[in-house]
Automatic annotation (TrEMBL):
Signal peptide: none
Protein name per Swiss-Prot or TrEMBL: Cytochrome c553
Keywords: Electron transport, Heme, Iron, Metal-binding, Transport
Alphabetized PANTHER family for the sequence: CBB3-TYPE CYTOCHROME C OXIDASE SUBUNIT FIXP, CYTOCHROME C4
SUPFAM superfamilies documented for this protein: Cytochrome c
Origin: domain of life: Bacteria
Domain (Cytochrome c): residue spans on this chain: 92-169, 184-265
InterPro entries per the UniProt record, alphabetical: Cyt_c-like_dom, Cyt_c-like_dom_sf, Cytochrome_c_Oxidase_Subunit
Molecular function per GO: electron transfer activity; heme binding; metal ion binding
Pfam families, sorted: Cytochrom_C (PF00034)
Organism of this sequence: Janthinobacterium psychrotolerans
Amino acid sequence: MREHGFFSRTNRVGWTSAIGLALLTIIAALVAFAWLPSAQADYRAQGLWDSICRAAGVPARWLEGSPRKDSADVVATNVVLLPAMARTASPASVGRGATLALNCTMCHGALGLSRSDAPNLAGQYPEVIRKQMLDYQSGKRTSAIMAALARNLTEENIADLAAYYASLPKARTAPTTYDETLPALVRVGDPMRNIAPCISCHGGIDQKLGAPWLEGMPKPYLVQQLEDFKHGQRKNDGQQQMRNVARPMTAQEIDSVAGFYARKALPGHH
């Protein structure tokens, strides 16, 4: 009887300890991922990863110097990217796009290769062009010239333009892949500053739907876009993905990353 009572008390103690541990874990998680991050004055995390970084206290003043963003400003695009947008288009669509592209040659070149520091469009992913044109059309991405050109285009027109440029001979080198000689931010990013590696979205290790091909882009264009993301002048990145990457970047890092991708151009296409 005494032995039975001993085991009963042992089981009760064990259950009590397990329940106590579970409650302690829940309380700790709430403190770490809810109360502690939100108690910091510059908090603006929009997901679990941000909350984990904030709870760990790294970095101490994340996104320092930037104004607090309202939730309505986080998703600054109306475009929903779908896999179908990346599919190869019909020859008829490409032909219609070639006619429409005659209005684009002054900046983007006769065959989608810019001589005026505008982005190269030859061989660009079709969903990238479609998203950016729709963002120009809706005002989510600002440019007086591009807004005027996009204003009267139908969705079919935009799809045709994207099909045409995607079909052009690709004046670009092989995609950037993981290599120890790559700039650190391109290769591994900087987790301590919440900077993802460029190759995780822009080709190489992976290509995220809607992320543009960067190899061979004009350096001044890349620098300007990173600066615009950094200072919040460009906001058409869903969930602040590029803004969160660019804000902590220094001028030297922006120049290094832009210079690396610009040097990936084929000879004669700088």
